[in-house]
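Quick one, tokens below. Sequence please?
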């Protein structure tokens, strides 16, 4: 009766080791969860087991997605940070990288593999577009050819095509600047315009080879022109420069010519003032110019025709108020016309109208030789012997109330009407007291005459 019971116990004892202690071979063949470390079999230690790590009760357990190798996330973060530290990183890449750094390992890897190449290509296209917007025609043309190309095309343009196109645009801009200079000579202008129609090679050839040669030729042409048309100082300097080298000619045009022209301009100013009929507007402007720079004197000479025209209108206005009937009528007609009409009236019409008034008043008409328009002092400046000055219209001698100084062209002797004669003549024509202020005109006359005499003496000595 006890045998079966003993047999059961023995059988349990025999089977227990096999159930409770599996063999080491079976344990080694069992699969491990991905991403978890197995026990250190060499040391024989037993790994710590945390509740829930077996996938039960909320633990991660075995995941269906393989995890990144250990340390990959740190390497990705370091790589993205390196991209951000690069000053050449574009705004699109920079924004996406900063966003990726806020994410997990998967987002870091997605940025490096997908977002980074795409955003870098977009940034390169933006950069090329910016160069095109602020570049010249060569940059715009070269950039347009690669804008829709690959990343390699864009990088090649930025490293090679862009510098070459910028150089071409710089040469083109330099030539355009030369052509815009009003002092550029005819030869340089023709060659420069031809070069602008070509490419980079033609532009560079003009600047390096043709420009220096053509500029030297143009300089000599300009000096030759100054020899024929300049004042005394300019002619002397130009004559010396023409005997020198191309460099000496260029230096004289840059330095010697402005100084010589300034000297000749002052002489021209005093010569203009030496005319006894110079009016108040001209005198005031001349005084300001003499107190200023050479540029002010040159501007005065350019304004001289307008200043004289203004003075002429003042004279005609005076005649309209105080002249006889014929003078008033003729002066009124002239005032309705141009400056040329005013000048013609003072040079011719005034004498005719005055003669008509004198005849009506019973005064004998002047002899033809004594007509105011034919007296030396009443001739427009430029018709008197004062050098190559600009023509001017002058005040008739009767407007001064004293007569005209000078006989012929030498400026010697006095031809006047006398006090008694002046009284009768001016009463008939109504022009008494119409002369300019004597002080300023006399001073200008003396200064101008002295300078002219000095100039003539220098000419005689040379």
């Amino acid at each position: 009766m006890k045998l079966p019971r003993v047999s059961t116990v023995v059988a349990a004892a025999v089977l227990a080791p096999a159930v409770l202690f599996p063999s080491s071979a079976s344990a080694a063949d069992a699969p491990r969860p991905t991403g978890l470390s197995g026990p250190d079999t060499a040391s024989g230690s037993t790994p710590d087991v945390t509740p829930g790590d077996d996938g039960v009760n909320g633990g991660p357990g075995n995941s269906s997605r393989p995890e990144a190798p250990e340390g990959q996330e740190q390497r990705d973060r370091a790589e993205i940070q390196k991209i951000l530290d690069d000053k050449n990183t574009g705004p699109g890449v920079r924004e996406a990288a900063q966003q990726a750094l806020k994410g997990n390992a998967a987002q870091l890897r997605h940025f490096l593999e997908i977002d980074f190449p795409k955003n870098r290509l977009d940034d390169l296209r933006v950069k090329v577009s910016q160069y095109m917007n602020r570049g010249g025609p060569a940059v715009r043309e070269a950039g347009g050819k690669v804008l829709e190309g690959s990343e390699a095309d864009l990088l090649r343009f930025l490293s090679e095509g862009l510098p070459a196109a910028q150089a071409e645009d710089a040469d083109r801009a330099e030539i355009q600047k030369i052509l815009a200079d009003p002092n550029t000579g005819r030869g340089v202008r023709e060659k420069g315009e031809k070069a602008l129609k070509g490419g980079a090679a033609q532009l560079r050839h003009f600047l390096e080879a043709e420009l220096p040669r053509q500029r030297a030729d143009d300089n000599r042409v300009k000096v030759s022109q100054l020899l024929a048309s300049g004042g005394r100082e300019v002619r002397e300097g130009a004559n010396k420069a023409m005997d020198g080298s191309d460099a000496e000619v260029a230096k004289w045009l840059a330095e010697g010519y402005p100084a010589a022209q300034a000297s000749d301009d002052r002489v021209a100013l005093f010569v203009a003032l030496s005319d006894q009929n110079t009016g108040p507007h001209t005198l005031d402007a001349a005084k300001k110019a003499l107190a200023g720079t050479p540029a002010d004197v040159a501007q005065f000479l350019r304004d001289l025709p307008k200043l004289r025209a203004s003075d002429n209108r003042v004279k005609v206005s005076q005649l309209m108020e105080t002249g006889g009937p014929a003078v008033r009528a003729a002066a009124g007609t002239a005032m309705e016309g141009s400056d040329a009409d005013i000048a013609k009236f003072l040079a011719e019409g005034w004498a005719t109208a005055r003669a008509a008034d004198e005849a009506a008043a019973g005064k004998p008409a002047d002899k033809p030789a004594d007509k105011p328009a034919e007296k030396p002092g009443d001739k427009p400046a430029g018709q008197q012997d004062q050098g190559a000055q600009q023509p001017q219209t002058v005040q008739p001698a009767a407007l001064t109330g004293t007569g005209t100084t000078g006989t012929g062209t030498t400026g010697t002797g006095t031809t006047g009407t006398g006090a008694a004669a002046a009284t009768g003549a001016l009463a008939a024509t109504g022009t008494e007291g119409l002369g300019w202020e004597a002080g300023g005109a006399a001073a200008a006359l003396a200064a101008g005459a002295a300078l002219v005499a000095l100039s003539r003496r220098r000419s005689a000595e040379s």
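The chain has three domains: 72-172, 193-259, 265-461. Strands lie at 404-407, 412-415.
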